[in-house]
Amino acid sequence: MLKLRNISKTYGRAQVKAVDNVNLDIRPGEIFGFLGPNGAGKTTTIKMIVGLLKPDEGVITIDGVNVWEEPLKAKSMISYVPDNPEIYDRLKGIEYLNFIADMYGVSKDDRRKKLDYYLELFNIKDAVGDIIASYSHGMKQKLVLTSALLNDPKLFILDEPMVGLDPKSAFNLKEIMRKMCDEGRIVFFSTHVLEVAERLCDRIAIINKGKIIAMGTMEELRSHAEERESLEKIFLELTE
Amino acid sequence: MMRKIWSLIKTDFNTTFGLSSIGYSIKNKKNRWQLILFGIAMLTLIPSYVFMVGSLSSMYDIYAQIGQKSMFLLSGFLSAQILVFIFGLLYVMSKYYFSNDLAQLVPLPIKPSYIIGSKFATLMISEYLTSLPIILPFIIIYGSKNGEGPLYWIYSLFLILFLPVAPLVLASIVVMFFMKYTNIGARKDLIRTISAVFFIILMIYVQMKIQTLAQKSIVQGSDFLVSLIKDSNLLVKRLGVSFPPAQWAALTLANNLSISGATNLIIFIGVAIISFLLMIFLSEYLFFDGLIGNIEVSATKGRGKKIDTSELSRETKPYLALAKKELIMLFKTPIYLINAIGGVIMFPIILVMTNSMGGDESLSAIIEVMGVESGYITLGCIGFVTALGMINCVGCTTFSREGKCFWIQRTLPIRVEDQIIGRVLSSLGVQGLGIIALLVSSIFIVKLDIVSIVLIIILGLLGSIPMTQIGMIIDILRPMLDWDNPQKAMKQNLNVLISLGAGTLYLGGLVLLVINIIDKFYISFIYGLLALIFILSALVLFKVLKILISKQFQLLE
Ligand SMILES: Nc1ncnc2c1ncn2[C@@H]1O[C@H](COP(=O)(O)OP(=O)(O)OP(=O)(O)O)[C@@H](O)[C@H]1O
Ligand SMILES: [Mg+2]
After folding, report:
1. Tens of pLDDT along A140-196?
2. What are phi and psi of B551, to 5 degrees?
């Protein structure tokens, strides 16, 4: 269970809140989509959940663990994939993966099983012997995805994960997300691709100017809006 | 055209010194307590600086006694310009060839000379930060003790303004040739680093050789004393040959009232300008050749050996894994390699070189008088290794070096203890190389017995721990994360300077203590005491670091 209670954040001396009194309750086994126009506050919210930005107000808990009071315990339950991952580009792919696995304390057998599976799936097995600086944008992203899947996270949180992935990898990622929620984990991701959100998500929240303006299943969202055919229309109408 | 150049310079300034973001962070209230702590840390620099200026003042008196006051000025200009040159080599290499903005600049329709010109202008500012603290005390001490008139100060202004030009031009040309002719093969990073280290050692060797030769030639002349009295600029004229611009500068100020002062000033400025133009001209032919292919890294793309995941996926303790990652990054990033590892290897070699070539004050003479048994040598080596623990810059840049990858550290469940231990271990790894370099090169001046070697290794490593921790404390208070060029995390990082100050204070205190008690106790007691002090301070600093890191990992944005 991921809970956000009255979360607000203002950057520096900015006049307006980047995130304004956000409340979210996400249940295990749910794929949750986070939508909103550019600058709406998606990345800011995500950074507060993963421990990169301290909220000015409010409480965030995962399974009752306060993210900001017991960071170590919370972080071992989370895997995070940022929107534009900068990683140690002088390391070899395999060195990076091992480093991350060591930090999560993943056992040797587990590690090998997962590496074999995901590296094959994302088709980067041949590249992990090279240094990361030689990777393409998408390869780097797939490496980060793999590293985030090495531990068994209770919360898998991704910021615009589909950007830069080729169709096959995007498809694989969606399958993985489905599988994870079948195992009772929470998948939380932000996206601009409305079709993905529409087809994949159990529930969707739309954020605009830091405030959640709509939340619920596709059905519930439809009932909010006047034009009811597609998420695109609903999105455009609500964020008007 | 002028507008193009101006716009390039402006953009480069802004990105290099983060002007836009400084304004932003000053406004941010939350950062204020760190700024205050940081300010206090900065104050620790003052005693070291005051001490330095104090000893300069007595140096002036010595030269004044032998009627060679101008020699004092030469020392100032020479050290400032040599330092500008050495830093220049590193700055130029990273700024011209390894900064991220190149990917944007190269495709633009601008000539290489424009890019080099604008980058040169920004480097000048960085170099003033190096040259001013050195040259100002020299100029002020000489000027005030000698009661110089307004012309002296006006000339000084021009000299200070143009001081970095010639050495920086020299550094630029050397690096551009160097990069052009080492732009070969897959292992070029390694080739370049190794040859750079050798080059710097060679250069210092040549400098010192010239100096000793010049010294010898002066003293050998039978009429030395006579000419010393006749010509008050004799030493400057003889010793300035190793870098003529420094000589012109010293002569300008020493003769500011006569025509020779003015001519020397004109030569100094003229040569600076002409050499700058020459460099710009050369850059058209050299720059792109060294640059293209720089971004390539060798990748096998699976054509190499197959990676067996079972073989490579060992479990490692978090702190060891962290130390390993730090060391790989240090070794594989050329700038870090030169600064950290090159540093700890170069310093011992230079130390030994200075002494084996020797003047009267050479260490070997002192060693012979005192004998090895006295423990002075061992203590000296321990002190030297401990000092390297700060000079290697591993501790004081450990968080800054994370840069844009810092999010990884902050989102992973890493215990603060593991953070500290892992990072200290990486510094000790580098120190290990320094100790080897020291022990190997010391073979040429002294015979160390096995006990001394063991003591140097153990106490040296122990002493390196608090040194690294002091650096880490300063770095975590204000990590410099927003860089586009690894050099900024390393040498253009104010944290390094402040840590050097704080480390000098710590080590200086210990040296004073040891000097005061060395006659009163058995030497083994002193070793024990040092070990105790190192361990205790490491423990205290560990506690402090734990609090600071937990706090900063939450607060940073
Ligand atoms: N580091 C920062 N400093 C100051 N303001 C920031 C910072 N990062 C984001 N903001 C501001 O916070 C607001 C929310 O930004 P955020 O990055 O969360 O948007 P987003 O929803 O992720 O947008 P996008 O779809 O473009 O990724 C914006 O108004 C932005 O200008
Ligand atoms: Mg975003």
Report:
1. 999 999 999 998 899 999 999 988 899 999 999 999 999 999 999 999 999 998 888
2. -65, -50
Which residues have C-beta under 5 Å from ligand 2, the single-atom ion?
Answer: A 43
Instruction: Judge whether B242 and B253 are in contact, CB under 8 Å.
Output: no
**Whole-angstrom distance, CA of residue B364 vs CA of residue B355:** 7
Segments forming the whole domain that contains residue A137: 83-152
Please state the atom number of ligand 1 nearest to the C-alpha of residue A40. Answer: 21
Domain membership of residue B305 (yes or no) is no
A62 and A113 both lie in a single domain: no
Q: What is the ipTM of this complex?
A: 0.92
The closest alpha carbon to B198, from B301, B346, B332, belongs to B346
How many angstroms separate the CA atoms of A20 and A18, rounded?
7
B292 & B323 share domain: no
Query: Within this chain, do residues B476 and B540 fall inside the same structural domain, yes or no?
Result: yes
- Return d(Cα A10, Cα A191) in angstroms, integer: 22
Identify whether the C-beta of residue A228 lies closer than 8 Å to the C-beta of residue A222: yes
pLDDT-wise least confident of B350-359, B435-444, B546-555: B350-359
Whether residues B455 and B504 share a domain: the answer is yes
Reported confidence tier of residue B201, pLDDT bands at 50, 70, 90: confident
Does residue A67 sit in the same domain as residue A92? no
Q: Do A126 and B27 touch (CB under 8 A)?
A: no
Instruction: Please indicate whether residue A43, judged by its CB atom, sits closer than 6 Å to ligand 1.
Output: yes
Looking at the partner chain, which of B310, B411, B415 has a beta carbon nearest the beta carbon of A80?
B411
Is B304 part of any domain? Answer: no
pLDDT band at B360 (very low <50, low <70, confident <90, very high): very low
Do B443 and B379 fall into the same domain?
yes
Lowest mean pLDDT among B23-32, B374-383, B423-432, B488-497: B23-32
Assess whether A65 and A116 both reside in one domain.
no
Report the separation in Å between the CA atom of A18 and the middle of ligand 1, taken as the mean of its atom positions: 7
- φ and ψ at residue A188, rounded to 5 degrees: -125, 120
Same domain, B173 and B282: yes
Report the range out of B28-32, B354-358, B440-444 with the highest average pLDDT: B440-444
Residues A99 and A171 in one domain: no
User: Has residue B263 got a pLDDT over 70?
Assistant: yes
Residue B18 lies in a domain: no
Residue A11 CB less than 6 A away from ligand 1: yes
Average pLDDT over residues A76-99: 92
Mean pLDDT calculated for residue range B323-333: 91
| Cβ(A179)–Cβ(A29) below 8 Å | no
- pTM beyond cutoff 0.95: no
How far is the C-alpha of B495 from the C-alpha of B396, rounded, in Å?
6
Tokens of B51: 């001490």
Query: In B292-415, which residue ranges form alpha helices assigned H by DSSP?
Result: 309-312, 318-332, 334-336, 343-357, 363-370, 376-391, 406-411
Pick from B190, B315, B399 the residue to mutate for testing the A interface (most A CBs within 10 Å): B315
Cβ contacts from A onto B, under 8 A: 127
- Token output for A197: 């959100």
A164 and A192 in a single domain? The answer is: yes
Within this chain, do residues B275 and B167 fall inside the same structural domain, yes or no?
Answer: yes
The CATH number for A35's domain is: 3.40.50.300
Q: Is residue B41 part of a domain?
A: no
Residue A16 phi, psi dihedral angles, 5° rounding: -105, 155
Place of tokens 């844009």: B404
Are B108 and B173 in a shared domain? yes
